[in-house]
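User: Assemble these into one structure.

Assistant: Restating your components, then the assembled model:
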Amino acid sequence: MTSGLPSTRLITRLRCVTDISAAAERLIALLPIAVRNCAANEVIVAQGAKPTNCCLVLDGFLAREKAANTSDRQIISFYVPGDIPDANTLHLPEMDHNLIGIGPAVVGFIPHRSVNDALAQSPELLHAFWRETLIDSALLRQWVVNLGQREGVARVAHLLCELAVRLDAVGLLRDRLLPIPWTQVDIADATGMSAIHANRVIQDLRTRGVVQWESRHVRIVDWNRLRDIAGFVPDYLHLKRPGALLTAPSPVV
Amino acid sequence: MPRYFFSTTHGAKRDEHEQVMEFPDDRAAWSEAVECCGEILQDIDGRLQPNLEWRMDVNDENHELIYSLRLIPEAYRRIKPEI
């Protein structure tokens, strides 16, 4: 991990979307966080479980997945460092989907009791968490549009745009490289496509010179073009402080 | 697992990128091909040219053609009635 204390990840994330005070940040820094390394594709919180901790992504990438039938699954969303993908379990005790690692991940487990104590002490923190869960539902709305209305190449392009902007906001997009160790099957499962179709779309984006896609890593070569293909409008991410990708002018290639 | 090669052709234009994937058997490759054809056609929509065949071929590891899924769109609007 690159940023010291595990709580720093959460503070960094909340700073992107809220005007969090030093007092609230101190409360976060006091949270007990048990750090654990998770294996690639590990089910970190299973559907049906009643967890007593929240997961904070510290390193790597998690995804929510839901089985569509015995053999198919849909990836519903991806989570990057600083996210708490199962904050829902603070109020909805039983998990209605799986939380898995996309590649190896480092996850911090924070007891519900500690989170609830901190939220009870600080209405500001409570509002920040509430805002985070509302943003999570805004993301899901966007994913519904993506899956239902965009054609294949735009669907994948949109996913790349979203993850690039989210990583950039928390300072983890370096050289426009998405270090996500996903497989093409993961992409297919996240975009509702067959693996062959996802494969074709990836090759299409590669051929157009928009991305370099090698050994599970994606580098964005032409951000403006990728954005155009995706029809990407980042309003739904509700970032108060986006990263350089959205604020800096494009470099001359 | 055996590898299968998927390619599409629209009229005389063959897709330059052949997709290679592993499947447990021919049946699984067939199922994937049908699903994929449906998705590609959904994306092509207005760009599918009438009177030009659209086709997906599936070859096995020995480059032997095992499946061909063909769509033959025909337009009658411009054809003048003979009588």
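The beta strands of chain A are 34-38, 43-45, 53-67, 73-79, 98-111, 177-178, 211-214, 217-220.
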